[in-house]
Every structure is written in structure tokens, then in C-alpha cells.
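Problem: given the chain below (322 residues), write out its structure.
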Amino acid sequence: MSQRTQRKMNSGFGAQSHASEVMEGVDLSGKVAVVTGGYSGIGLETTRALVEAGARVYVPARSMASARDNLADLQGVILESMDLADLASVRGFAEKVLSRESRLDLLINNAGVMTCPEARVGNGWESQFAINHLGHFVLTTTLLPILLAAQKSRVIVLSSSAHHMSDIRWHDIHFDHDDYEKWSAYGQSKTANALFALALDMKFGDQGLRAFSVHPGIIRTPLQRHLPHEELRAMGWEDESGGVSELMQAVYKSPSQGCATTLWAATSTQLNDIGGLYCEDCDVANLVLDNPSPIGDVSPHAVNEQGAERLWQLTEAMLAEA
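Solution.
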């Protein structure tokens, strides 16, 4: 398999694989990891699996009280305050890690927001793009010295099948001119996540840092808190009583299954010496060839090297103006 061949590799795992299956035999003793959003939903399950494999895990938290409660039963977790919407706090968290660690083996950019009402953060940035992409860009690039010091580090960026909904809106990323549309904004941010992982791998893969983007699958988590029940019913996700519809019962993953692709991309020896790929169901995803908006696979715009470089440059320009 060539370095960035976007095609299933028949990993031996699949959509129903659990974290325990993927992590069987994986020893992370002495390894250091950071998991954003690592105290809720699939992030919590990711943290748990890494700790159980022997890693020391930093979890930055916007809600420290919730994080302490949810992580109370885990040893080897270091909690610090951070808000991805506040770049000063992102840099502050990263500086604490830099002051304590000489290497960082795994960075899991897991946190995010989804389909929230229009909001502006930072330098007037649209909040979904800012939180899901810009905050993680600043975190990752600030931690680059110790990621590179680890020599064989991996960065995992959580994307979504929602990337099919929108390429980067190059003409109006922050909806300064067009009316805000929450799904387009979310889809754009998930495309940005995939392109960021690709750009990271393009720039630093030859120095031992490999990056992957991941679609975790469809899981019921607090991420969906901004979707009203009426909309969930209209989408076919809920039945009239507010329960999971029969349609979604067939595709929903548990949190353990939802974090399995993240863990596979972070630890699998099958991915040694390759990177920049979009993964799903504990495997590399196939590239979309015909259907422009499938639930699975990856659209060409999310794995385009020119788009990845363009986004990197635009991101640096946005941050320079902040």
C-alpha cells in the first residue's frame, strides 16, 4: 500500500469492533497522550482504553467538575483547564504540557461541537470552524516540539461523514456574507479536520509524525445536544416517542465501538510508515467515486493535497490577524 492510497486495507476489524478488540496486546507503558474532550462520550472511552494500556493521559477540560466526576475511577489521568474557543487557554494548556513532558506520543483531537446556533468567537470566527479546527490547529502546532521529539508520534483528528456536506467554503469560511447554515458549517469544519490531518502528515511525516483523520461512526453522545427532537425525528434518527428509530438502531455504535477507529489509527502497526489517510470502521476508508453524499467513504475534497496546503496557509493567516 503506497503512502496515501485511500482504499480499504482489510485490517481484520470492522464497524462492530470494540475498543478492547483493537487494543488487545497493545502496550503503551511509558507513552504520553493528550485527548481533547477525553472526559465525555467516545473521548472518555478513548481515555479509558489508553490508560488501561499503560499510557499517561492529559485531558484538557472546559468543565473541570464534569471531568473530575467522569474520570474519577481512572488512574494516570492529568486534568487541566482548556477551552478550544479561547486560544489563550489552548496555548496555556499546551505550555503546561511542554513544561512537563519531553515527548508526546499521541495527540487525539477528539473534542468538538456540532450544528450549534450561530456564534462568533475569537476574531469574529464562526464557532464550529473555530472550535473544531482552529483550536486544534493551535494546540497541535504548539505541541509540535514534543510530538517530533517522540520520533514515532501520531496525531488523530476526528472528522465525520458530515464532511460530505461541504468542502471548505473558500469564498466565505465564516459566513460573513452568506446566511449561516448549521449543517454546512459543521460539514466544513469536518472537512477542515480531515485536511488538517493530511497537511500535518505531508509536512512532518518524514520526521516521524504521522497523522490520520477518523470518522468514528454514528453514536448518541452529548455532541448532538443542539439538535431538537423535532429535527431528529424528521431525520429519522428518533421515533415518535423520542427513542432510537429502527433505522438508526441498525447503524448506531456504542461509545466503545465509536472510539475503536480512533484507537486503531493511533496504535495499529498496520499503519506504520503511512499516514494522511481518512479512516472509518477500524480501516482506511474508500474514496468516493460515484455517490456524492454517502454515509461512508471519503469525498475527494477532504483528502486533496492542494486543499490541505491551502487550508494550512489560510489558517496561519487567520491566526496572524487575531
